[in-house]
Amino acid sequence: MNVPLPTVAVIGLGAMGARLAANLCAGGYPVVVANRSPEPVRDLVAAGASAAGSPAEAASRAEVVLVAVSDDEASAAVWLDRDTGVLAGAHRGTLAVEASTLSPRWVRNLAAAAALDGLRFLEAPMIGSRPQAEARALVHLAGGRPEVLADARAVLECSAARVHHVGDHGTAATLKLIVNASLATQVAVLAELLALARRAGLDPAESVRFLADLPVTSPAAARAAGVMTAEDFAPNFPVRLVDKDLRYLTALAEDLATETPMARAALAGYQRAGAAGHGDADLTAIAAAYW
């Protein structure tokens, strides 16, 4: 006997949320979507999803809620708004998955609020960007109870090659910020060094080819260096989101009395890039702030 797939509400149809919803539709799940702007909703309705007028309405029609938004403030609005938020519409026992990159403090607060309303909460931030989502090759870091992850795993694996349980609520958010800071600091250093190479009269493309062949250069750094020299800054990980993640990381470090001078220096570089008009460009556009 075939067990029907649960209805999944996907809320937040930006670069990642829209792709998560599309993968769920392709996987045969009943999907209901909600978003502040109507354009991505129309696209997903054409792909088989149904539309809801608010997160509350979407949650009321679903057994699983999956949220993918930009920051703590957007997450709070989606989940906690008294009239339109997920908690205003979700039924007790709903599986509530927050897949955004957020601060650990907010994730723990949200988990507590969800528990008070009888929801089964899981944080599951994503490693990867648009190409990985389209290829169903994301990595999810899961924080929460193992039995809740077990119930959510099939939904997450519609877009992910791997799902790692890393601990309780807040642990996945912490690890995701560390991952993003590792990439962001590498890219910031490369931007400085390639700018130096240019000023010294070296050919940037040749410098990148040389660096890419060295064992000290990570694959991610090699790809970023190639994008910088091509100056093709179509966004996969926008500068404005790198700025946000580094701010969350340095705030966490302050809470833990831990020094993060490299992350702070990188943050200053991305803020410089944002001030120069590159906030919506890829993080590699930090190079333009130095060239």
TrEMBL record:
Keywords: NAD, Oxidoreductase, Signal
Gene Ontology terms for molecular function: NAD binding; NADP binding; oxidoreductase activity
Record carries keyword Signal: yes
Protein name: 3-hydroxyisobutyrate dehydrogenase
Organism name: Streptomyces aidingensis
Signal peptide: 1-21
PANTHER family linked to this entry: CYTOKINE-LIKE NUCLEAR FACTOR N-PAC, OXIDOREDUCTASE GLYR1-RELATED
Annotated Pfam families: NAD_binding_11, NAD_binding_2
